[in-house]
Each structure stands twice: as C-alpha cells, then as structure tokens.
Amino acid sequence: MSLLTRRAVMAASTGLFLARATATQGLEIRRTAPAEPFALGVASGDPSTDGFVLWTRLSAGGAPLDAPAVPVAYEIAEDEAFRRIVRRGRRAASPALGHALHVEVSGLRPGRTYWYRFHALGAVSPVGRTATAPEHAERARIAVSSCQHFELGWFAAYRDMVAAQPDLIVQLGDYIYENSYAQFPKVRAFDAPEPVDLDGYRRRHATYKSDADLREAHRLAPWVVTWDDHEVENDYADLANLKGLDPAVFARRRAAAYQAYFEHLPVRPSLWARPDRPRLYRRLAWGNLISLPVLDGRQYRSAQACNPPGQSGNRPRRDCPALAAPDRTMLGAAQEAWLDQTLKAERSRWTLLAQQTVVAPIETLEGVMSDQWDGYAAARDRLMRGLTGPSVRNAVVLSGDIHAFMVNDLRTGRPDAPPVATELVTSCLAASHAPKARYGEVRARNADVRFADIERSGYTLIEATPQKLDVDLRAVSDQADAEGVTQSLARFAIEDRRPGAQA
Hints:
10 helices, 10-stranded mixed beta sheet, alpha+beta, 7-stranded mixed beta sheet
C-alpha cells in the first residue's frame, strides 16, 4: 500500500479513533428518553472462559439519537430475574460511535450462563442471555449462518436457530447487503439507496436490526462474527473495487463501512486498536473440545486474478495463469503467519476454521471462480499445509458466500489422495440462490463435493462431542414466507480422526 493510500485510510478512520478518546466523557448528560432507545436490541459475543463482550446501540426508535454522550448502566446476573447480580458498571455511549456501546467483561466464572441488561435515558433494555466458555467441554452446539439479504427473504430461520439453543452462533459474513437486486422479487425494501458513507452504512445496519428474528437471535446467544464483501461492496479485495475507483477514494468508503460494522455488532473494542486496520482475525475456544480460529478474507487479499489493475470482481476463469501465482494471498502475510502459529499450537479435539469463501477446488460450468480460494491456489496450498500439521487432530472448514449448501472433502497432493479435512458450506440464510447456469452440475463435475443443494436457504447446526461432529443442514420451507418452517435437509457425521463426512 502506498504512503498516500495509507494516509487516506488513516484520515478516513480518524472518527473511530476520536470516538475512543471521547467515549468515557459526558457521563453527566441527562436527556428525556426518546421512544424505544433500545429498539436496535442487545447482543453479546466472543465468549472466553471469564467473560464476553456486550453490545447495544441507543437510538430513537431505530433512528439516530440526537444527543451528546449518554450515560449507560449495565448489569450482569447469574439469574434471569437479576437477584444475583455479579457485575455492574457505567459507560458513555458517544455520538462519535453512533451511541453504540461495547463492554468487554472479564473476571466471571467459566462455563456459566449469564443474563445482562442496560439502563439509559430512563429506559431498560431487553434482557439478554449469554455464557462464558467452559474450561473443559464434552459437548458444544454451534449454529453457522451466512449471507442474509434483507430485501430478498425473511429471517425466519433464526427462530429455528434460537429454538436449538446453540452455545455459539457463528456468522460468516454478508451480514448486510449494500446493494439491491432489481431482477429478484422482494419481500420488503431498503429505505435508502446503496450506502457509500458512514450515515448510509449506519442506516443500513439499523434497517437490519428492525428484523425481530435477527434481534432475538442476538439477544439469546453469543455471536462470533466476521465479514465478507457485502458489508462494504460486492467482491471488493483490499482496496480494489468494482468501479476501479482511486484507492484513496474507496478507502474512505471502506473505513465508513468498517466503523458502522463495529458500531452494530458485538466485536471486542480491543480488536480495533488501530482504526485504520481493524483486526477481526482471532481464535476462540469452547473448552478443549473446539478451537475456532476466525479469519478475515477481505481486508488483506490480493485483487482477483486477471482483472484490470485496481478493479475487483468475481469472474469465471479458465485461461488465467495468475490464478496460480505464488505471491497471491487471501489473508495477507501477517494473518497467514498468525494462522500458521495458531495451528501449530492446537490442542483441541476439533479445529473449526471459520472463514468466508469456498476452499475446495470447484469446477463450475463456466470455469473456476476467481473470488473463491480457486483464485488463490498457492495461498490455499499454504492453508492446507497448516490444517494438516501434526497439532491439528480434526480439521473442519466452515464456509459461506455462494448461497448453497455443500459438504466437501479437502485433499492435498493427488486428486485420488484420501481426504485430510472436511468443508461445510452453509447456504444463504435468506438471499438469491446459486445460479444453475454455474452450479447446476457441481456434483457431477467435482468428485470432492459429497453433497450440494443450490435451491434452499437456511443454516448449519453442528453438535460436537469428543467422538464426532453431527452436522444438520437445516433449510427453511420458503424464505418469502415470514412464517416459513425450518427443517432438516440433510445430516452428516464427521468422526474423530476420520476426515470426510459420512451421510
């Protein structure tokens, strides 16, 4: 990145830096309570053995709050009635962060359920439920979601997810969509044009939080999140963008989108120590049962191969030698080094790698897709070497992005070599489905694709024990039906030390 571009990114991110500097000021402010200051809900995320992060954002019934810094009190209890309160505190919700509040909590007991709530402007928030991670675990239930387009479907699958009472909800990106699709029927509409600045992205996130099923899923389970492309712009790669805009111009849009993402999700503020380069890659764990490295496959990647300089775009490729260039990266050098060290230190029974795009080689009817790991073949080889290291007992990759369910074998070396890991691709929770013209014969053309469904929306539910992972691909009956019912589409098991899913 050039010096000019770095300066542009820093300048575009100054607001987030200043927000931290002012976030503890203004506690003396008192304001008349607006209508529903907690209309955007509450959330928790990134549980550790002694804590988690809590989130809310004050608003006026979902609209921006016209106020200076507002004092917010929080309470954490061991019971839903708040008779056994174990933690109280006060923080300021600053207008520089859109009156969002993040509280990183530590010092709690491991492996316990906790309830929390906020007080501000004379109102009390909904009561949220969360948990600390256990030190040792014999069981874990993890729900995996991806790709939720507000206009193209209702989020009814979250009702089924909440009923399953997962220990964690892992969201693999495309939490919001910046764009609208004129060619698809809509069940509801965005209330603003495509966002390009901070106000626009704030409004888009607030629109998403108007969905009651999404708010309820946030309220009742801790989330682990990472982003993909639509949180900023479709198919962007670092500062390469669809329109080929000058990097300094696109840097301002990206920084605005990143800040709005932070303001609306339970992300630890300590991950955002550098406002010009917020860090989302990190590792979580659920006892000694589950290791959950979480990757950021957008912020640091090389532009998709064989595009004009500075221009992004996911395109089918056949004759593009750059696809195999050894210097191409999906994760960037620093994240690759971090992941390599993380995998070398693994001690858990299951390593679930949470990331965005399909890892398995996929030959479509049109060629390989340049935005997936097929477009970064050398980087994929490096990833697979890490996943097959001696410290990794069972490697499972969690993927999303393509709006289809898939279960794939992952191999190294020869195509007829035994599988060394399994990839679980979760479908869109609600969005357009993978095009038949591209993926209609995906199983026939790819021996490593054990299962594929390109017509259903839903999520993936994983039940982990030391002996196996039970995988349930759960599909909603009709994403255009607000009362759609979610049921099992297919089930698989992944056994300890036996790579590859068994139907």
